[in-house]
From TrEMBL:
Keywords: Signal
Stated name of the protein: Uncharacterized protein
Signal sequence segment: 1-25
């Protein structure tokens, strides 16, 4: 983040007087909403048309503030300007300022607090505690400045903590920005709360709750920083949201050549950390850079701060209209999507490698093409769609000639006449299928979840139900459970001209209009109502198809909303040591309650499938939603998938449910396929292998769009 000004640069106006402009002003003085702090009738306001921030003076100095919407709704309390807990003292020390200065620069208007940690020994002097309690620390352990900056034309408020340790001591925690959302206003009530890639709670659900995880995975209050996909936290209530963002690669603290401490997010709704009727979003050190030290509010292995060591937090907070998805979207609009990493191989080279794989390790004589992991039956005569195009465009290639010979070897010498379906027969088949769907649609337009019936895929639900509890109730519904048949009904109605199918599809989509969290896409192995990327993509496509069919703009608006819900699942940053830009989480839950942790692991095939399905439906999201650069996003997820393409000599993959495949992996049997999962904390890949054709489909679309753009420039 950009360096801020220093008070010495410009003349600073000392501000140690109250401001009289507030809806809560009484007798000419600002009356705070928050009562759980001392207040000596001195306050100062920093505001623009997007946000109002009132700061208040405690008995010993400036130390806390309130964050309000322009309409006066209290969104959060910042109940300190920082707080320190050291190993050898059992009382935490908050940061307070003797004075505050107002400074105006080209960056905007700022309040600069010259802070220092309180000295407990001094606080007790002259009290009844003085003769029986004595702490050895006689000076502030931390000094520095906290600078809060607003600009006239932006809702984003800059927070800069520039602190210095005054001695050597062991750290339990040092807290920077620490917001108690809903304090003294709406309390624990919320519409939703999102820590992208980690948690997505709605209504009265708890973050770190056991709704979609079981312990020990359920607790995610202080997650490994790599698990956070977008470096922000968001909470909303009744049409207003608040966000807090940071740079996860920033150096919060480092001494000499010792380990770097990065800003560590802390997220709890309700605030079970402080056990208060509010909601918490904050930043602290030390960080949980090892999974074994996740969820430590008090560090179990206390790092030492050294005299003169710098501690810095740079963050942003902002208010958004809407819910937490809008908070995330506003951050993306402000910062833009990151430029995708260059692909491991350029697109044409990647296509060559995939075609070569189908000609070698993905070819099985007498059976056909496939990724054989359990049985030779996984290979068959079906030809991947991209391969036909590749062969048509590279007819002179030796690989293509060999592929052609392989395909011909699968064709019987005497091909029986293929019965061609007449238009009447096709319509009859579609109507029959449509009637079967209508027969299971409920009166309200929804469809029921049937884990032992039509939704049965594998025995995961049976295992979960017998081992712990069901991951979804028979007869319940969720977004994807209703959206998938809705899409089928719209398509059947469009192709047959039968209005009853269109009406039924519309009714199903209307049933889902009030939903805000995408759910149900991985129903075969994960909790039914967990936040899910697949459901987000399906709902975006279905709503846009409804817009095309019926012309009602509410469907386009909802399509855009659902597409934007994919953003919290997507890594829009990466740590310096592990490439993971545009990797995606499939679902924020576990599988079978215990057997796979989808907060730790990425999956790329689902997001590729969403975009491939969008391509098949002729939807160009960058044109539907031009505020988000969806073409860049599409390049990002595709380049990430190319990064996933596996070569056994890299030795960065291991199996889990089919351990016997490891020997075949070492022989190159799965080269240029891509694996099921990527571990965000280790950088290793694992699971089953997936054919690379899904990557090729997305590559061809991007190449076609590049060619189209180049043609348009001529």
């Amino acid at each position: 983040m950009k360096k801020m000004f220093f008070p010495a640069v410009l003349a600073a106006l000392s501000v140690s007087v109250f401001t009289a402009r507030s809806a809560t002003a009484a007798n000419g003085r600002l009356t705070p909403h928050f009562k759980q702090s001392s207040y000596v009738n001195e306050s100062v306001t920093l505001e623009n048309k997007y946000v109002t921030m009132n700061f208040f003076k405690r008995i010993k100095g400036w130390g806390w503030g309130e964050i309000l919407t322009p309409e006066g709704k209290l969104m959060a309390v910042m109940d300190h300007l920082g707080e320190l807990m050291i190993r050898d003292q059992d009382i935490p020390m908050r940061f307070e300022a003797d004075s505050v200065s107002r400074v105006r620069t080209d960056d905007g208007e700022s309040l600069v607090f010259n802070v220092k940690s309180v000295v407990v020994r001094e606080m007790l002097k002259g009290t009844s505690f003085d003769n029986w309690m004595h702490y050895p620390y006689g000076e502030p352990a931390i000094t520095g400045t906290v600078t809060i900056t607003v600009t006239p034309d932006s809702p984003f408020v800059k927070l800069k903590y520039d602190l210095t340790a005054t001695g050597n001591y062991y750290l339990r925690y040092l807290r920077g920005p620490w917001l108690k959302v809903g304090e003294s206003s709406f309390g624990t009530k919320k519409d939703d709360a999102i820590l992208p890639g980690v948690d997505w709670a709605i209504g009265d659900e708890w973050t770190s709750g056991s709704d979609f995880f079981k312990d020990p995975w359920a607790l995610r209050v202080v997650p490994h920083p790599n698990k956070v996909s977008v470096p922000l936290m968001a909470i909303s209530y009744e049409g207003d949201g608040i966000g807090l963002a940071w740079d996860p690669n920033a150096v919060a603290a480092r001494w000499f050549n010792y380990r770097t401490q990065h800003p560590q997010p802390v997220f709890a709704s309700p605030n079970f950390v402080d056990r208060m009727n509010n909601q918490l979003m904050g930043l602290m050190i030390p960080d949980a850079s090892v999974e074994g030290h996740e969820n430590e509010i008090y560090s179990q292995i206390a790092p030492e701060l050294r005299i003169g060591e710098k501690i810095e937090f740079d963050a942003e907070l902002w208010l958004s209209k809407g819910n937490s998805v809008d908070v995330v979207t506003d951050w993306v609009k402000r910062h833009g999507l990151p430029e995708p990493s260059a692909p491991k191989w350029d697109y044409r080279k990647a296509l060559d490698l995939m075609a070569g794989a189908y000609n070698t390790n993905l070819w099985h004589e007498g059976h056909g093409f496939g990724v054989v992991q359990r049985s030779i039956d996984e290979a068959g005569p079906n030809i991947p769609g991209f391969l036909r195009r590749y062969m048509n465009e590279n007819k002179k290639s030796q690989v293509v000639k060999e592929l052609q010979a392989k395909i011909e070897s699968l064709q019987p010498k005497e091909v029986p006449m293929v019965k061609i379906e007449t238009p009447e027969q096709k319509k009859a088949r579609q109507v029959k299928h449509g009637d079967e769907i209508l027969a299971i649609q409920r009166a309200d337009g929804s469809f029921a979840f049937e884990p032992d019936g039509r939704h049965y895929r594998k025995d995961d639900f049976k295992v979960a139900t017998s081992f712990v509890e069901p991951m979804g109730l028979d007869g319940a519904t969720a977004l994807d459970i209703t959206i998938l048949p809705a899409m089928e009904l719209l398509q059947i109605g469009k192709e047959t001209g039968e209005q009853r199918f269109l009406d039924a599809g519309k009714k199903a989509i209307d049933f889902c209009m009030s939903m805000t969290r995408p759910e149900g896409g991985d129903f075969w192995e994960t909790p039914l109502h967990a936040a899910n990327l697949f459901a987000a993509g399906h709902a975006a496509i279905a709503n846009y198809k409804a817009f095309e069919q019926f012309g009602d703009p509410k469907y386009k608006e909802k399509a855009v909303y659902w597409m934007r819900t994919i953003l919290p699942f997507t890594h829009l940053w990466e740590p310096e040591e592990i490439p993971m830009l545009y990797n995606t989480k499939p679902v924020l839950s576990s599988s079978d309650w215990y057997f796979a942790n989808w907060v730790r692991d990425h999956v790329q095939w689902e997001v590729l499938a969403v975009f491939a399905q969008s391509i098949a439906n002729g939807i160009r999201w960058e044109e539907v939603d031009p505020e988000i650069d969806w073409m860049k996003f599409h390049r990002g997820i595709t380049n990430a998938a190319i990064r996933w393409m596996n070569v056994h000599t890299d030795d960065n993959w291991r199996p889990h449910n089919i351990p016997e495949t490891y020997d075949r992996y070492k022989e190159g049997a799965f080269d240029y396929c891509f694996p099921d999962t990527h571990n965000a904390t280790t950088g290793n890949y694992g699971g089953m292998f997936i054919p690379p054709s899904a990557i090729a489909d997305n590559i061809y679309y991007l190449l076609d769009r590049e060619a189209e753009a180049a043609k348009g420039k001529k």
